[in-house]
Design a protein that fits this description.
alpha+beta; 17% strand; 41% helix; 34 strands; nine-stranded mixed beta sheet; globular
Length: 895
């Protein structure tokens, strides 16, 4: 079995090797070091001093939410204070004071201005590849390319500004902030082209400072490395030395004698294939899953196993798993694990190719030397499946050969004290490819090594035991390439996003990528890598839905609300926050929006991150969660907040003025001028009233009164409202760009139906012309909601011309239609209230009538009726609509 197209992989190209060889041998941090007003003779002395200071503060820091699980010595060893602390960072506010002072110097140099203000969101999609050296250096469950974040930072900030990410993950926000001062040429060209294309002024290049926090010690480890500088040459030299020692000690594990002429030559083993051994459901005969699943000669894969003993054909789900019992000397007890056998190996001969062999010889394992995690898995949503196979402790998911190599490698790494941080970065980057979770699927041909199943802990029936020495060399190459792009300038900590320890009103911008509800069980998946770091996640504040943690949507929403309240507290008034989110569940999407609004933020735009799918949308339904989205929102200015606090009713229009100033003036997609949903009068009303309700203020007026006053105070163009200057700018753009009728909003509720028609009827159309398009956009409504017929929606919200075409009504007609519609909604809600007193559950309702009724009840302080109706609604309807949820939560607190 051979592949003659094989080429021996090289860690670097000749050009890269020449570049590395020619670079100066710089030891970053050598010589005097100044930090936080103190000067140290060298970096080692700085590290020693601050580690001792951190140790003194640990007793108090342990009281802060999100403090990790670990011994003091391990937390100190993982930290490099004051920049990077594997716990809440006690020096953050000291850094912030220094960074604020630096701004004055930057202003004196003309690199920033004191009157900098961002008046509209970054409202365009972003398409960015994932092939950058930084992105590829270390894997993680989710990651946003740093060039994407750079666009937002460059739009919302200026050099010297302070950026926060409380769900930092791998620290890409920090990478992006520093890269704004030292971008690679390709990224700079692409970003500048995007800014020109979208009509923004050229970005102001210059480094920003970032504060990155996350609950996970693994995230801290990755993030702190991505936001550090290293001597790539020195790290490469250390890698070469380590590889030599590994080869000397364990090279014989990965050699095979291959007949060649009259003698043998050594083949290099790339990987071993292990197969689960199961028993026939009929006769109990042992079956090798690998041998019976795939024929290497015919290349045919079988979904069933035929017992060679009795001939019974059975599905893989029908076979019986076998457990092997043995004495585990490491645990000192008897263990039982699913039975696997090594049945195949893949080896290579330089300049010849790759081959398979079944000549697998027993290896005389050397004495175990070094550390390997004995951490127990316990139980969990993902963990339970792994534990059922008998893998009850972390080390058990590694083949024994791999355990020996990793234990020795771990020991070697810790002998390189200065480069230990970078070497451990390489070490953790290779771990996912060394477990028994790596699937072997020969039916995929050259791609038979398909890696672990994403975001689960799944033990496959056939797994690959990769050569760990090869993996170390390969990952070292990827990491060392990335080192040349890395910069310093960020502070990294382990903490909960609910408690950042940052002073009020200290941050200039927030970019954050929070957990996606129930999609990924981060702390469970991170257990494997974190056990090597000897510091584990405290998942009590982990914002996920996980039955093993007794967390569902309500708990997720509660934690996210606390997180966004913390974000609101530390963000300066008038500044912006971007929230990246992706989830297939409307419940989590609405929970997130509710959490943002309940904190006090006002949403200005919701944008698709992928510009191949377009720009700005009104993401108000379940379809909103089928792509990665960026929510742009802001904290009102100090002036507006003060006016509302003193005179909430009379300050409504100050807030509307500010909101209109912060909405995109126009959006161009595919050469056409698109409808900006956040300028729709109903969306404006929802945004502003949500702020009033969340802050406990009286609602000054109803929707009809609001629209009438809005029309009197501002300028309407194509169903959107503008300030006078904005209207002029929109009209000028309209002369150059045709208005588009293209829509991207599916219809799963009455409100979405009205919104879809308002966009579609920019060009008047007949009922017949609309019907086919309408049917293609219809989606199943939420349980308990119903979508009115198309004709009913048209009659209630639009005007029919004499020629039979439907048009968007002018203001006078719109006011009359709204009044009639409100009468219908009021009547419907009254029926729901009556039914709520009789029925066990309200099955057939209307979301718009419920929203209208809840708003009216809030104005009248009739909180009991809100609770009465809400508790009879289907739970999914209540949880998937942020408006109903908002009123219900407030009503419950008053009843």
């Amino acid at each position: 079995m051979a592949n003659d197209n094989y080429q021996q992989p090289s860690m670097f190209t000749d050009e890269e090797m020449n570049n590395i060889a020619s670079e100066p041998q710089v030891k970053y941090g050598s010589g005097p070091v100044k930090v936080l007003g103190m000067t140290f003779p060298d970096d080692e002395e700085r590290r020693r001093y601050f580690r001792e200071e951190l140790r003194k503060r640990l007793p108090e820091l342990r009281k802060i939410e999100g403090f990790p699980i670990g011994e003091d010595d391990d937390i100190i060893a993982l930290s490099d204070p004051p920049y990077y602390t594997a716990c809440p960072n006690p020096w953050l506010n000291d850094f912030i004071r220094e960074w604020e002072q630096e701004k004055q110097q930057l202003e004196a140099e003309g690199k920033r201005t004191a009157d900098f203000e961002v008046t509209e969101p970054y409202a365009y999609g972003i398409k960015q590849g994932k092939n950058h050296a930084i992105y590829n250096a270390h894997t993680y469950h989710t990651k946003v390319p740093h060039q994407v974040i750079m666009r937002y930072i460059l739009h919302y900030t200026q050099p010297g500004d302070i950026v926060l990410d409380g769900f930092a993950g791998t620290g890409m926000t920090g990478v992006a902030a520093s890269a704004c001062g030292n971008p690679d040429s390709d990224s700079k060209i692409d970003i500048q082209a995007d800014f020109r294309e979208n009509g923004y002024s050229s970005p102001k290049w210059g480094a920003r400072h970032a504060i990155c926090g996350d609950l996970s010690p693994l995230c801290f480890h990755i993030s702190s490395n991505y936001n550090s500088r290293f001597d790539a040459n020195a790290v490469q030299n250390a890698v070469n030395e380590i590889v030599g020692k590994l080869e000397s000690r364990f090279g014989h594990f990965y050699e095979i004698d291959v007949p060649y002429g009259k003698s043998n030559i050594k083949g290099h083993v790339n990987y071993f294939v292990w197969s689960e051994i199961v028993s026939c459901s009929n006769c109990g005969h042992e079956l090798n899953v690998h041998d019976l699943s795939f024929d290497y000669e015919t290349k045919k894969h079988s979904k069933t196993l035929v017992c060679p003993n009795c001939g019974t054909e059975q599905k893989k789900s029908q076979i019986h798993h076998i457990k092997e019992t043995s004495f585990d000397s490491y645990l000192g007890e008897v263990t039982s694990q699913t039975k696997y056998e090594c049945c195949l190996l893949n080896y290579s001969i330089p300049k010849k190719g790759r081959y398979f062999s079944r000549d697998i010889k027993a290896v005389d394992y050397s004495q175990f030397d070094g550390f390997i995690p004995k951490y127990p898995f316990g139980s969990g949503y993902n963990i339970d499946q792994l534990v059922r196979t008998g893998c009850t402790h972390v080390y058990m998911i590694y083949p024994y050969r791999t355990q020996l190599v990793l234990a020795y490698l771990y020991q070697l790494i810790h002998e390189y004290k200065y480069y230990e941080k970078a070497l451990m970065f390489i070490f953790t980057s290779m771990l996912p490819k060394l477990t028994k979770l790596n699937r072997y699927m020969p039916q995929h041909g050259s791609r038979a090594l398909v890696g672990p199943m994403a975001n689960v802990l799944y033990m496959p029936p056939q797994f690959v035991e990769n050569n760990p020495i090869d993996q170390f060399v390969y990952q070292a190459g990827k990491v060392i390439r990335a080192l040349n792009f890395l910069n310093e300038g960020s502070a990294v900590q382990i903490c909960s996003a609910t408690n950042s320890s940052i002073a009020d009103n200290s941050v200039d911008y927030i970019f954050t990528d929070p957990p996606f509800g129930a999609n990924i069980m981060y702390s469970e998946l991170n257990t494997v890598s974190e056990s090597w770091l000897k510091v584990m996640t405290d998942n009590s504040e982990e914002a996920i839905s996980n039955p093993a943690q007794h967390k569902g949507i309500p708990e997720y929403q509660e934690i996210m609300s606390k997180c966004f309240r913390e974000y609101y507290r530390v963000l300066k008034p008038g500044k912006w926050m971007t929230v990246e989110f992706s989830n297939t569940s409307a419940s989590f999407w609405n929970s997130l929006q509710y959490a943002i609004k309940s904190a006090g933020f006002i949403i200005s735009a919701i944008t698709d991150l992928d510009k191949t799918r377009g720009g700005l949308y009104a993401m108000i339904g379940p379809t909103a969660v089928k792509q990665d989205l960026a929510i742009s929102c802001y904290k009102p200015t100090s002036d507006v907040l003060q006016k509302i606090t003193v005179r909430p009713e009379s300050s409504l229009w100050d807030m509307v003025q500010e909101h209109l100033n912060r909405c995109a003036k126009y959006v161009i997609k595919n050469g056409k001028l698109m409808f900006v949903s956040d300028r729709d009068p109903r969306i404006i009303y929802d945004r502003i009233i949500s702020f009033y309700v969340q802050n406990g203020y009286e609602i000054p007026m109803n929707s009809q009164e609001f629209q009438k006053e809005l029309h009197a105070r501002f300028i309407e163009r194509d169903g959107m409202y503008f300030t006078p200057d904005q209207a002029l700018e929109y009209e000028e753009q309209k002369k150059k760009t045709p208005v588009g009728a293209e829509t991207s909003l599916f219809v799963s509720s009455e409100r979405e139906g009205i919104e879809w028609l308002r966009r579609e009827l920019i060009k008047p159309q007949t009922y017949a012309e609309l019907t086919t398009k309408w049917m293609s956009q219809l989606q199943t409504p939420k349980k308990g909601d119903a979508i009115p017929e198309l004709m009913d929606i048209l009659k209630e919200n639009f005007i029919k011309e004499d020629d039979g075409r439907w048009v968007i009504p002018d203001f006078e007609n719109q006011a009359h239609l709204t009044e009639m519609r409100n009468k219908r909604l009021r009547k419907q809600f009254g029926l729901f209230v009556e039914q709520a007193g009789k029925a066990r559950r309200l099955k057939d309702t209307n979301l718009e009538a419920l929203r209208f009724g809840f708003t009216e009840c809030y104005k009248q302080k009739d909180f009991a009726t809100i609770v009465k109706v809400a508790e009879k609604l289907p739970e999914s309807l209540l949880m998937e609509d942020e408006v109903l949820l908002q009123f219900y939560d407030i009503a419950v607190s008053h009843v």
